[in-house]
């Protein structure tokens, strides 16, 4: 007891905390080191003789002994559990991110001209930047989406300006001998900071604040070697771009644009799908709502096109073409916010089915909150596109209550973009690994972020996806550079089938066995048939993502992923199969619902249905949220998760419970349909009600701590 008392006294000493900080122990590391040190002393059968003597002298008050004398022993122990403390100065230098402009000496050798084209959606800002791109001797276009890069690629070649296409999964050269053309259209992550150009275009620059991808815009803005950099985006990013360019000694010329067509916020809500008109687009923020709304539209004898984020690019373009075609009977579009960028759509009226959207917060929890002003403007701005058949755009909501809130959101000023994203480079992580050879890649990233120092204009991007993949493949023997590449793979970690495939890719790669076309076909069970229900459609989308993953890796490890041409061919065929499924989506929904127990809704999306709104924030932890169809039915077993059979049995059992308890048009049913309640929340409420009912019945207290004893007492009374 005396030892513990003195150890805690040692921990609370300000002088000791200061000494710890001087030796590289910040508050978090100091706390972790002390917990380990205290456990070592209290639980070890013996400690070193010198430490034993010091502890004895402190506890007995002998001589001039003081708890501060424990510090050398504490520091020695801390260095054993945190090896980086011995090379802290070197690690701090490596992770110093305060001067990103210095990372690009080739760009700093130029005096670049920066032109910011600022304006809302449909203002012609990107058009003017692209005109300069086409007139230049050489140029590069950097966009956020493959669809946008593909559009500029086609537009350039149609204008007789030879242009290559470069995305993570595809390199298309216009020259037959694969010589690089003077113009390139690429996704922003793929831009080269070494190749000189006359003109560069950076599109949607406000995404520099994106928690996951912002680093790519920072890299392009600071690193592109071009005489002219044309930046396109929201006015909210002007101040940040100007400040960033001030640190490079470059001035920014701002050109402001106004919307080319009028946009009116209507004074009335749609309220019923019976009021739909040709050119209407209903925007939903969950797949469940997409399926529900499209089914109701079809029930009214109307055709609708469907666009959402996980659809392949070819399918999105085909659905957009169907909706835009004046001779096609399809005049209604049901879409997610995926329409906000990359698709030219002839929309007369945007109708928000909901104004709340699920997002993931920093703790990995699902938040459901109102859309931001920036998001609302981006989506609403798609109505009345310049050059389309509709010269004026209109915006409203499905529900009357939401319209007032939507007007408030649209009238709020867009908050200025305050910081630009950064991400550790492979070279920086390799230098960390040299100093910490025994650390895992996930730990290296953690240590890098904890030690990194950033200027106020920057932030370190979210690395959760990177760490998830690093932990997933940690047991597979790979060299650090290969491991880093696998961990930067562009995949959705909520898709177990895709994650499992990456694991198999890495395992095969580690054995130095090429991943052939035949191997991939066996794994994905290709050829695949047209989907018969929504689950099968979702699985086909996941297989398409697997093909994307193969193609992405084939450009990094050509010898190990040798059949990119064959895979691209079957991916195009799969895209056509998915197009057939999406064209018949209402039939798939009916098939899914007929296979589901009466009174319950088929869960097809991780997102909650959001058909009604609330102007508040609800946080639902992932461990309590509904699982996606991929997780429930189409994926092989993922390490650390239940097998598919267990999940299927679990879902079946919970459905039966739900039918028994909530099958008769109850309030619970209505709340479930409106997305204000989930099945898990319902089960929890039911459990709490039963506990309360049991306690009341037996005349017991309702405190949780008394429940076990209460049950026993209840049995005796009964």
From TrEMBL:
Keywords recorded for this protein, A-Z: ATP-binding, Helicase, Hydrolase, Mitochondrion, Nucleotide-binding, Transit peptide
Alphabetical GO biological process terms: mitochondrial RNA 3'-end processing
Positions of region (Disordered): 687-718
Family (UniProt): Belongs to the helicase family.
Enzyme Commission code: 3.6.4.13
Reactions performed catalytically: ATP + H2O = ADP + phosphate + H(+)
Cofactor or coenzyme needed: Mn(2+); Mg(2+)
Protein name listed in UniProt: ATP-dependent RNA helicase SUPV3L1, mitochondrial
Species this chain originates from: Pterocles gutturalis (yellow-throated sandgrouse)
Main location: mitochondrion
């Amino acid at each position: 007891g005396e030892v513990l008392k003195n150890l805690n006294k040692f921990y609370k000493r300000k002088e000791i905390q200061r000494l710890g900080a001087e030796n590289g122990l910040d508050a978090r590391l100091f706390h972790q080191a002390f917990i380990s040190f205290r456990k070592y002393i209290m639980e070890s059968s013996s400690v070193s003789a010198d430490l034993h003597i010091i502890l004895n002298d402190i506890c007995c008050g002998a001589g001039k002994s003081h708890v501060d004398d424990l510090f050398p022993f504490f520091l020695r122990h801390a260095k054993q559990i945190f090896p980086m403390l011995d090379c802290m100065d070197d690690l701090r230098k490596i992770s110093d991110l305060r001067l990103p402009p210095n990372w690009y000496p080739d760009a700093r050798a130029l005096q670049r001209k920066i032109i910011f084209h600022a304006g809302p959606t449909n203002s012609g800002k990107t058009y003017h930047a692209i005109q300069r791109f086409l007139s230049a001797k050489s140029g590069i276009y950097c966009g956020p989406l493959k669809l946008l890069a593909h559009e500029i690629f086609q537009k350039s070649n149609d204008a007789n300006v030879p242009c290559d296409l470069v995305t993570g999964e595809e390199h298309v050269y216009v020259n037959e001998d694969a010589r690089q053309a003077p113009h390139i259209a690429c996704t922003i992550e793929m831009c080269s900071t070494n190749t000189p150009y006359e003109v560069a275009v950076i599109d949607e620059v406000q995404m520099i604040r994106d928690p996951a991808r912002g680093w790519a815009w920072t890299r392009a803005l600071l690193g592109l070697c071009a005489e002219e950099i044309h930046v396109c985006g929201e006015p909210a990013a002007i101040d940040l771009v100007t400040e960033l360019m001030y640190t490079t000694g470059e001035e920014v010329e701002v050109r402001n644009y106004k919307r080319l067509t009028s946009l009116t916020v209507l004074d009335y809500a749609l309220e019923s799908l019976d009021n739909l008109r040709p050119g209407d687009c209903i925007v939903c923020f969950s797949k469940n709502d997409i399926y529900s709304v499209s089914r109701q539209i079809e029930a009214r004898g109307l055709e609708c096109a469907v666009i959402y984020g996980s659809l392949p690019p070819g399918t999105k373009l085909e659905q957009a073409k169907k909706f835009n075609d004046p001779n096609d009977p399809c005049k209604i579009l049901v879409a997610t916010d995926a329409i906000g960028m990359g698709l030219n759509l002839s929309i007369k009226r945007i109708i928000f089915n909901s104004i709340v959207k699920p997002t993931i917060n920093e703790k990995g929890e699902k938040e459901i909150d109102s859309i931001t002003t920036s998001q609302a403007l981006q989506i609403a701005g798609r109505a009345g596109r310049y050059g389309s058949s509709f010269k004026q755009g209109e915006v409203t909501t499905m529900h009357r209550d939401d319209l007032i809130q939507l007007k408030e959101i649209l009238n709020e000023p867009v908050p200025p973009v305050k910081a630009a994203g950064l991400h550790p480079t492979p070279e920086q992580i390799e230098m960390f690994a040299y100093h910490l050879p025994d650390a895992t890649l996930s730990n290296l990233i953690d240590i890098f972020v904890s030690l990194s120092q950033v200027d106020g204009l920057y932030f370190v991007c979210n690395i959760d996806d990177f760490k998830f993949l690093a932990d997933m493949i940690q047991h597979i023997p790979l060299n650090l550079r290969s491991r880093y590449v696998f961990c930067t793979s562009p995949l959705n970690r909520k898709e177990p089938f895709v994650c499992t495939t990456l694991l198999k890719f890495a395992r095969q790669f580690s054995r130095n066995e090429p991943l052939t076309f035949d191997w991939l076909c066996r794994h994905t069970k290709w050829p695949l048939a047209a989907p018969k229900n929504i689950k099968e459609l979702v699985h086909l989308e996941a297989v398409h993502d697997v093909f994307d993953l193969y193609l992405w890796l084939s450009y990094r490890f050509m010898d190990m992923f040798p059949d990119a041409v064959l895979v691209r061919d079957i991916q195009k065929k799969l895209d056509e199969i998915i197009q057939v499924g999406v064209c018949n989506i209402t039939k798939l929904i009916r098939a899914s619902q007929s296979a589901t127990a009466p009174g319950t809704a088929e869960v097809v999306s991780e997102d909650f249905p959001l058909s009604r709104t609330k102007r508040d924030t609800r946080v639902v932890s992932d461990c309590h949220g509904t699982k996606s169809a991929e997780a429930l039915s189409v994926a092989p077993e993922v390490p650390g998760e239940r097998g598919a059979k267990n999940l299927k049995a679990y879902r079946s059992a919970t459905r039966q419970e739900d039918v028994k308890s909530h099958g008769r048009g109850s309030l619970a049913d209505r709340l479930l349909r409106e997305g204000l309640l989930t099945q898990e929340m319902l089960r929890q409420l039911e459990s709490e009600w039963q506990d309360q009912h049991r306690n009341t019945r037996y005349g017991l207290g309702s405190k949780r701590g008394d429940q076990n004893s209460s049950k026993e007492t209840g049995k005796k009374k009964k």
